[in-house]
Amino acid sequence: MRILLILFTCCCCLPNLMLAQKKRFKLGEELVEVSGMSIASPDSIWWLNDGGSRPRLYCTDRKGRIVRRENLPIQNRDWEDLSADPSGNLYIGDFGNNLNRRTDLRIYRYHPVSKSLDSILFRYPDQMAFPPALPSWNFDAEAMIWHRDSLHIFSKNRLQKGNYYCKHYIVPAKAGEHVAILRDSILLPKRVATGAAISADGQTLVLLSYFFRMTFFGKLPKIRTSIWTFRDFQGSDFFKGTLQRQKVGKFPVIPTQYESIGFVNEKRVLIATERTVILRQKARQVKLKTPNTTQKINLD
């Protein structure tokens, strides 16, 4: 009888155990080009689609099923990343700037409970021309976090002919017009930043990046995706901390592009892909490498 009771208990707990351990899931048809995410809880994940989509936020459960939609009375010119603060505000980064000529860069602050909506306009302190000369095209961005009452933006350099420097800017997390502060920059060899997240304890920053090129005599595309993990930094001097890079995977035949990232816990992150002609959009967990000393970055 005791053995039967144990077996019955295990069978009842198995579905919940499997759910808790689910590391991959597909995203709904409406989430065709997810460029940002913010994980409020294991069963509450906020998402946004890239520019040109509806000005709408989506909330899904841990299986990727949409449980809530928030339509906003604003424009989705080029939404690129999503972050949140401890008060429950969501920050929408409308700062996609592929042509480096926008003069209306902004971040929307929205609270899904109170429905309050603010606009944070900003400009880069080192951009003097719109657009600047081609070698200086580093005023696009797809990555942002909230940290210590400020918003931290990480630039995306030109993919093919850029110098692969990622610049770190700081903008106050309050409504109004601001000039961003250029805090630092770092070389991401052969990679451009497409997403960012910071752990709940504020001790670990991750940048998601990728590189695209044609292989096999220019006939087949290949995308390389990497996660850059920063630890042991002081305050918001992220790039002064220790650094590790880990490769997520290579896609030599059917490329897929990861553009959003969020912390599941201190050791794991969730990353998500955009939809392609062949592959459906999906999310997967990645276990971060164990911390070690500063890593030497190879140019491969």
Shape: globular
| Tally of distinct domains | 1
In spatial order, strands of the major sheet run: 6-7-8-9-13
Poorly predicted ranges (pLDDT <50, ≥5 residues)?
A: 1-21
CATH class: Mainly Beta
- Quaternary structure classification: single chain
**CATH topology assignment:** Neuraminidase
Percentage beta strand: over 45%
- Which range best describes the helical content: under 10%, 10-25%, 25-40%, 40-55%, 55-70% or over 70%? under 10%
How many H/I helices? 1
End-to-end Cα distance, whole Å, is 61 Å
What is the architecture at the second tier of CATH?
A: 6 Propeller
Instruction: Give, in order, the helices and strands.
Output: HEEEEEEEEEEEEEEEEEEEEE
Taking the sheet with the most strands, its summary is: 5 strands, mixed
Taking all Cα atoms into account, the compactness measure Rg is 20 Å
Mean pLDDT: 88
Structural class by secondary-structure content: mainly beta
The overall strand count is 21
Compose a concise summary of this entry.
This protein is mainly beta and 300 residues long.
Can you give a write-up of this model?
This protein is mostly beta strands and 300 residues long. It has a single domain, classed as Neuraminidase (6 Propeller). 6% of the residues lie in helices and 47% in strands. It has one helix at residues 2-20, and strands at residues 24-26, 34-41, 44-49, 56-60, 66-71, 81-84, 90-94, 106-110, 117-123, 140-147, 150-156, 165-172, 176-179, 181-187, 192-198, 204-215, 220-231, 242-251, 258-263, 268-273, 282-287. Strands 6-7-8-9-13 form a 5-stranded mixed beta sheet, with no helix packed on it. It has a 4-stranded antiparallel beta sheet with strand order 1-21-20-19, with no helix packed on it. β3 and β4 (56-60) form a beta hairpin. The longest helix has 19 residues, at 2-20. The relative contact order is 0.13. Mean pLDDT is 88; it is low at 1-21.
